[in-house]
Amino acid sequence: MNEHTVKAFDEDITRLRGLIAEMGGLAELSIQESLEAMIKGDAALAKGVVKRDKKIDALESEVDKLAVRIIALRAPMADDLREVIAALKIAGVVERIGDYSKNIAKRVKEVEERKHFEPLTLLPAMGEIAAEMVHDVLTAYASRDPILAREVIATDEKVDAFYNSIFRNVVSYMVENPATISSAAQLLFVARNIERIGDHATNVAEMVHFAATGNYPPDEDG
């Protein structure tokens, strides 16, 4: 590529990274606010999370268009091509994370008698870890940091442990208090959505590792 083309390519990549960062910031905020709305029963806050998801969707569409344009006009190769492909995949995953937060927000009005549910005291901590995973993995993407990406992957074990604890707690409560089954089931869905956010952050971390090194991270269970 000549100097002009290289400069234009660098500008496009910077724009691509900026869009991913903006998507991630909005997704991170939606995780936090959807859980705050669930804890407090705040319908207005939940409505804001649902509305924000449209902005995340619009940014994903913008990433798709820019990535296709970069590939068509710049014909990137090797490291540059991996970065563009990774950005495409990451945008799709972050969009799904936004969807999970929206799903949590939509369940706010379905939970009654909040003060009786002990899992509501665990969900914020679980959500905080998931939100940190999203924040850290996008930091790893921006800085092409495979070490931080592997740390994000390792953190998913904590989210899974929270999910298992909340699942056992809620099921026991449902058995002892059948009248609360409807609301308790909503909390199980919320915990499951957070667990899936952790899984998606892990998927992004694997893509970031690939984009930075050309290899997927080693399987720690292998």
Low-confidence stretches: none
Number of domains: 1
Helix fraction by DSSP (H/I, runs of at least 4): over 70%
Number of helices: 6
**Roughly what fraction of the amino acids lie in strands?**
under 5%
CATH topology: Methane Monooxygenase Hydroxylase, Chain G, domain 1
The CATH homologous superfamily: Phosphate transport system protein phou homolog 2, domain 2
Organism: Pontixanthobacter aestiaquae
Pfam families: PhoU
Keywords: Cytoplasm, Phosphate transport, Transport
Protein name: Phosphate-specific transport system accessory protein PhoU
Topology of this protein?
Blueprint: H1 3-40, H2 43-74, H3 78-106, H4 123-143, H5 146-176, H6 181-213
Describe the structure.
- By secondary structure, the chain is mainly alpha-helical.
- The protein has one domain (1-213): Phosphate transport system protein phou homolog 2, domain 2 (Methane Monooxygenase Hydroxylase, Chain G, domain 1, Up-down Bundle), CATH 1.20.58.220.
- Helix 3 (78-106) runs antiparallel to helix 6 (181-213), helix 4 packs antiparallel against helix 5 and helix 4 packs parallel to helix 6.
- The model has no long low-confidence stretch (mean pLDDT 89).
- It contains 6 helices and no strands.
- The longest helix is centred in the N-terminal third of the chain and has 38 residues, at 3-40.
- It is found in: Cytoplasm.
- Plays a role in the regulation of phosphate uptake.
- Homodimer.
